[in-house]
Amino acid sequence: MGEVVEVLVPGGKATAGPPLGPALGPLGINVKAVVDEINKKTAEFNGMQVPAIIEVDDKKNFTVSVGVPPTTALVMKECGLEKGASEPGAQVVGDLPLEAAVRIARMKFDDMLSYDLKTAVKEVVGTCVSVGVTVDGKTPKELFALIDAGEYDSSFAE
Predict the structure, then answer these.
(1) What is the mean pLDDT of residues 124-138?
(2) pTM for the complete prediction?
(3) Domains of the chain by range and CATH?
């Protein structure tokens, strides 16, 4: 049985320094090859923290699998934000189009607790509360009522 290393790396910009180097060095594998592989697989998530899992077998072969960045990072990227609101309940720092919320929900669907796209979108909209972002110009609470009333059902067609 081999070793498994789980780390959060900057998308497309992982280096042999911490957290990767110290975790991989003792395993006796080519750290540069791992870093290059991670950077290739995370290039599309430039500027976001991306979860990466490196599995090393007994023969020093490795496989790299990357996850999807946290929902908050995806929301902030879609809104062009560096950071969220300092007072999320009272301050609005951006507006997320509903189409972007649906796109994020599709990206994150396998990691969510939702059984369908409609509730997955509601999870993304709920995350917008903590970031200080409105969705389609509405507060998340207003949007929940409209989603529950079926106003946006056409947006959730698979």
Answers:
(1) 92
(2) 0.76
(3) 3-66 (3.30.1550.10), 71-156 (1.10.10.250)
